[in-house]
Amino acid sequence: MLTIAEFLALPAVRDAAPEEAVAPASPETSVRWVHSSEIYEIGPLLSAGDLLLTTGLGLAGVDAGARRHWVRELAGRGVAAVAVELGRSLPDLPGELLDEARRRGLPLYVLRQVVPFIRVCREANAVILDADARRIRMVDAVLADVHAALAAGGGTPGLVTAAAAVTGGPVALVTRSGRVVAAAGVRDERATDRLLRRPAAAAPVRVWDVDWGAVALGTGSATDTAGLDLLAPRLARVAAVAVGQSGAGSAGDPAATLLADLLTDTVPGTRELLLRAGLADFHPAPGAAVVGLAASAPDPRPVLAGWARAAHGEGLELLSGRVRGEALGLVAVPGAPDRTDPVGWLTGLLPATGTVTTVGPAVPLPEAGHSLRQAHAALPTATLLGRGTVPTRELTLPQLLAGLDDRALRRLVEDALAPLTAWDAATGSDLVHTLAVHLRAGGSRTRTAAALHVHRQSLYQRLARIEALLGRPVDDPASHEQLVVATTAAQLLHARDRSDGRPRGR
């Protein structure tokens, strides 16, 4: 292509003494090809960006209305400009032609000197073809270097580096959510942000029929915007192959494969995680907290369906799948005023399916594997205790104590709670459980009574009995840690007895 300004500067055009009748929106308006014609019905034969040369022979014998129609048709086709040679056919530029061109924003020029149109077309179209050839050679050079980089094991970083080296401008490969997987030719994060906001050219990267992301190209010293427009879709197709071949992903079930690898900590880095998360159609927004989920059920499908409904209802990104017979997932929770505690908020959002679900800590995307592993590691303890949907932060102590055998746990209980266990065994009461709930409620009598479903007066009586038996206040800071450990050990012992079918120890 060449611009209107470059067209007007051609020797053949200068010899025709052009005068501007209607200015273009910009002198940089592109001209894709230059034609000459004298037929009135030329409009349907032209395309956007074409420039038409005419002596007006086809307009000489028609009325003003037909001439206006001729202008409207050319403008509607997106013609770049019209140049009318004044002479025998049209001694002067008809007023209706000028008026309609102004109304339609069609650039219009008059040529005062006679120059063979074949000469003008030859010069202009030779420039266009030469520019197009340079762009094609540039694209070929980029793709050759990109393929060489990929063959050498350079991966996506090698792809963008090779492209930036040839174009002389910045290149970035980004996921659909805007996370940068690889970038080259940018000085800093601010420059990368500018490239993503206003690329000179961009093209989508589709892998396995998934809108994975895009390549973004910035202006460079070795080509123009038209060259980048030509390069972008071709580079995107190569990028799709590179992304599709990353890691152990597969078209079959990229979500389950990625979750399995995160669980075993075999995803080598953040770039690999971004590539494969995009393949699994998981696109957390920048800054979103990522939370791991794990659940054990005879049939994980209802659990996964419940997670999907909950995530969809709140517009959350969810990556989930069945791995080794268990339901695993990652949820991206964007920041919001009601989500200052993403884990607590998500725990309340998840449906009660009758299965145990553990909710890992909120982490940045690069640490998603850690949250998933924490949720999965806590699953056996949560299942033993029958906790329902529970954050892993509430299972820290039970998980630590779960490594002890029954004898060690009973020693912890007896050292701190012997008077209570003896009373419970003798009376059939459950003071140990009451104390455990009270400690977990942070010492709040109101929350404890609500959790136990008893009146506060009944709770006060129980707490008074506990303190009398222990010989010290239950809210005594000096004994708080021991009581928390001991009541947790008692809960674990009770859960083990229940799971083994043993009579409950007192």
UniProtKB/TrEMBL annotation:
InterPro entries: CdaR-like_regulators, PucR_C-HTH_dom, PucR_C-HTH_sf, PucR_dom
All copies of domain Purine catabolism PurC-like, residue ranges: 26-126
Domain PucR C-terminal helix-turn-helix intervals: 431-487
Stretches that traverse the bilayer: none
Pfam families found in the cross-reference section: HTH_30 (PF13556), PucR (PF07905)
Identification of the protein by name: PucR family transcriptional regulator
